[in-house]
Specification:
alpha+beta, Multidrug-efflux Transporter 1 Regulator Bmrr, Chain A, nine-stranded antiparallel sheet, two-stranded parallel sheet, 3 helices
């Protein structure tokens, strides 16, 4: 019994240490810059700055498959899988387009541009300039999956329809946490808006 309690205590302590490390590591990560335009009870409208991303397009619309494969490919690049073996800092969030062929994107840290980014070893990685855009975002916690993402996509559409806000068919999923972080997980579904001045 005593040994069991000691083992449990070590496991709990290890879990707490990992979660504290995860939360602290998130605090120093560069984020996709935006300003909140307006808050509503279920969502908010944001203006995002023009930003450079590394991206990979996958021929699947399955969240689990796309996120696993896409993350692995892009992580390989920023962890040194490039012509100069240079490590590039992780950023947040990981972005995923919600289409039949999903595109996974990591934001490029501001100190880089297309000219000084090292060339990827994998030919399917592209550098993508995302223009400034206005998007509506709905947030949810826990672990994301295809069913949850689709549910919050529909909730966002319903909320926007009720407010009479026009939106495009360009939806995205944003994931903010590393896989080993269990507490305080944050996920978002976003959609690009039409000209909000007309709403």
């Amino acid at each position: 019994m005593k040994i069991t309690l000691i083992v449990l205590g070590i496991l709990v302590l290890g879990f707490v240490i990992v979660q504290i490390y995860a939360m602290k590591s998130q605090s120093g990560i560069e984020n996709y810059p935006y300003k909140v335009v307006k808050r509503f009870p279920r969502f908010e409208i944001r203006n995002y700055e023009a930003t450079l991303f590394t991206s990979v397009k996958l021929s699947t619309n399955n969240y689990k498959e796309a996120s696993g494969k896409g993350f692995s490919i892009l992580a390989g690049y920023i962890f040194g899988g490039n012509e100069t073996n240079e490590k590039i800092a992780m950023t947040s969030p990981v972005s995923m387009s919600l289409e039949d062929s999903m595109t996974i994107m990591f934001m490029v840290p501001k100190k880089f541009n297309k000219e000084n980014l090292p060339k990827p070893n994998q030919s399917d990685i592209e550098f993508k300039e995302e223009p400034s855009k206005t998007m509506a975002a709905i947030t949810f916690g826990g672990w994301a999956n295809s069913k949850k993402i689709e549910a919050y996509k529909n909730k966002l559409k319903t909320a926007l329809d009720e407010e009479g806000i026009s939106y495009s068919n360009k939806f995205y999923f944003f994931g903010y946490n590393p896989p080993f972080e269990i507490l305080n997980r944050k996920n978002e579904v976003l959609v690009e808006l039409q000209d909000i001045s007309k709403n």
